[in-house]
User: What shape does this take?
Amino acid sequence: MSHWNHKHIIDLASFSLEDYKTVLELAKRFQNIPSSGSRKLPALQGKLITTLFFEPSTRTKSSFELAAKRLSAEIQSFSPSTSSLKKGESPLDTVMTYVAMGANVLVIRHSCTGVPAQLANSLDKAKKNVSILNGGDGLHSHPSQALLDLFTLIHFFDKSNPCIENIYGKKITIIGDILHSRVARSNLWSLTACGANVVLCGPPTLLPEEFIEFTSKPPSSEIDPIKKRGKVTISRSLKEALEDTDAVYTLRLQKERMSENLLSSLNTYHDDYGITHETMKLCKENVPILHPGPVNRGIEMSSELLDDQSICLVNEQVTNGIPIRMALLYLLATNTK
Ligand code: NCD
Assistant: This one.
């Protein structure tokens, strides 16, 4: 792991191909821990992982906590509703409290874009020897989700040889509420880095034209570590977007992030962009469907399709989240600078 040089993981814009390979290889090793007997590895014994989820979560928080346990770390979990946030304490003071208790890695989710990055900056300035792992911030980034999606896809494309090269040249279609999705943004960085051509599909109110430029603009201080990315295109037609695609990724309509009504009706949305067994017939055979969860059944995806494990990989995504998060926690907790 000698080349690993990220103290924090805030987004994937700064990830090189080596970084992706390191995470995926390590996750592959952790995936193979036998599922009977003691499932624990001693790798993070003596390390303290703290999860601070200022915004609700089912999958990500539990998955990070289980990953930490599987590596024998100590785990501490902050819950905003019963904390001193209620008395007006700031996120930074909250974080500093957990740093003073000896946290090695803080997994942070916040509804505002930029909070994990700001906290990482403040901790670095204060010379604190602790890593921040972004568990999802506002509309910005959700790196562990995109990495577990990548892990799921490389296995789907070739189970006997699940490697990053399996993604090269593939057409991956992401459908739905792209505007409000940190998952879509993180997947755009990871999939194009591995050479996939990504087609974004949705109505103009949920998918502005600017997204075509998305991966050509790494955050201001960064030079793109990827020499040649896959292409990003936009399609308003589901038929066109599904034609010849190798995988379909659909997203939740994130009503809690919509400032105004961006859709004429949910029924119209489902008719135009909802994915069902019927619409999957527009794809070639054996194309999988992914979704980060939670799913609005019957809106972005039909209930029947969600329950059809022959093509819907939602459960595999959840399962794969554990080894991916074990890999991320291991890399940060053992490389703290
Ligand atoms: C996503 C999130 O919170 O960004 N969920 C997740 O982490 N699995 C997507 C969503 O909320 O729609």
In short: The mean pLDDT is 94. Residues 59-60, 136, 142, 145, 182-183, 252, 254, 292-293 surround N-carbamoyl-L-aspartate (CB under 6 Å). The first helix runs from residue 17 to 31. The radius of gyration is 20 Å.
